Protein 1
Amino acid sequence: MTTPTEPTPGDVVSAALTLHELTSIPDNSPRWSNIAEPTKWTAAHTIEHIADALLFYSGQVARRADAKLPVLRDGRDAPASEHLDNVLSAAHVLAALLRDLAEERAFHPSGTADVPGWAGMAVTEILVHGTDAARAIGVRLDLPENVCARTVSRVFPWIDPSLARPSEILLAVTGRISVEGVHSDPDWWWQSAPLNEWDGLPARRDVKPGWT
């Protein structure tokens, strides 16, 4: 069996399963109210954001969107454990939709993405914001290095993969840690369109992230 070189739908689920360690903190713990830096959100809200992001991606992919659609939300309050379960459910939904997407593409503000592009963005959302929440509540996450490697090479192709472990590069390029040689741009963005359309420059966002 050939080892994939780009992020896969299965990588989205693998990333979501990584967050299971966060369930070790009970729902009634005050830690869930700690701020998940560098965002201004609580740890609990950060987990909710991950599920929101995955559902937004799912809507874009399911409808083969050519513009940004509203984010799917139900508006109900829920404990952190339910938000974590929602992340896993949303990851499975997105993975199934990406398998169906096949060779088609769908709009994302960072570019019209194919399957590896969507998968790489989803993995970034899960593992980076998952790390934000984990630090806030005092839990250590072991990020899957193979999933991080595929993600970095696909959606951050301007980064030299030899500079550090893939998980460290993923966290460095998104501004969570410092790694020598990895520029942490506060306006970092993804190369979500296929790599054959990449202009060779680091991608930069033209809209501010929702968590600032």
Note: Residues 175 and 186 are 7 Å apart (CA to CA).
Protein 2
Amino acid sequence: MTSEDRPNVVTTRWWWVRHAPVRSDGGNIYGQTDIACDTSDREVFEAVAKILPRDAVWVASNLMRTHQTAEAIWAVGFPKPTQMAREKAFAEQHLGQWQGTNRAAFLASRPAGSHWFADINEPAPGGESFMDLYNRTRGAIERVMTEHAGRDVIAVAHGGTIKAAVGLALDGQPEKGLAFDIDNCSVTRLDHFASPGRSIWRLPFVNQQPWIADARHAAMHQPAGPEVTTSKLA
């Protein structure tokens, strides 16, 4: 018997979608910069639309690239919801003075093997730490689940936001969420089960890319953290 079959268990399923790739960043860190994304690859959005639930609550961050991504999903025939909540707390980490600096050069200056721009408790100058992002993401998730318990929730957000949500699902360990890659347009599903006196999460899949079998879409990937190689620095 599955958790869904047990009496007195309320299951809320989160379908996190990372926004489409940003092409106009000039190789720079953009964080909360309100920059547009590239939604021209129709086949990618057709594949994403096939795995998302139809009767769902939609929510997106306040940044334009998440709304453009949602519009691209609806444009391939996915039923457009009557409304989509705008949740500022689901925005990407504010990287302060690091925004606008060369990504490869910045990441090369950080400790080797880092999972993110900085330690989870280190705020960007004039911005936030990853823990700040984690705490506001957690608070928003809890608010949405209070209002929409038992529903499917499609949340269009950002690499850092989704990593924070994964960390929450991993028993509230934000640093563990940073170990996961979250690619553009990927879908991450996190299921929450609530019963009297108990609350648990399950992770059916993380960073699912339903278009991945087609090699033409290799260029979809954009860095969502400290992803830099020697070739990028050459």
Note: The longest strand covers residues 198-208.
Protein 3
Amino acid sequence: MIHDQNPILAFVWSGWTATWPTALLAIIWAAWLISWGIGSFFSGRTEKHVRTWDSRAYRIPILVGAVLLTPWTERILGIQPLWNVGTGGTYLLAVLTVAGTLFTWWARIHLGRFWSNAITRKEGHRVIDTGPYGLVRHPIYTGLIAAMLATGIAVGTITALLGTVLIAFGLWQKARMEEGFLTAELGAEAYGSYCHRVPMLVPFLPQS
């Protein structure tokens, strides 16, 4: 076997990525990351952004969560899954993972050149409240959290689940910071009205 002959490759392709069908989850996320990275070149000019130092409030939990979710953490710590959802369950959760990532792409395409990986105000920035932004105020984060939850449940290790929770917390924290920033930049009347009409992360959640 090539994994036995090459210890580096054996380590890279280890943990929950070394067995099928959980390896399918790694393929899905690899495809999303590559396509997302390519899409980052198509964005409008940034006029203002949150300072990098201030963004550590959401970047740190997301980074730590991502490390915990990787199969290498599972391999190094020798952690075993808490449960096994079975082949059918894994395929179902893979479908949900794909659905979550597709939701992020729908939102990103709909947002167009206003999209940014950081919290920014783009040139000509305005409130977008149609398409997925008519369902939730942060559909990219909603899709990511849903996809991460499906992946974490499929993997079933304590590190993967903890990583999923940390990523979800980081995205929630980023959404809160983004809303404060956009309220100040776009005006409380415009963005505040949007916040009163549309749920933050969970679709169809009643607003007060």
Note: The longest strand covers residues 46-49.
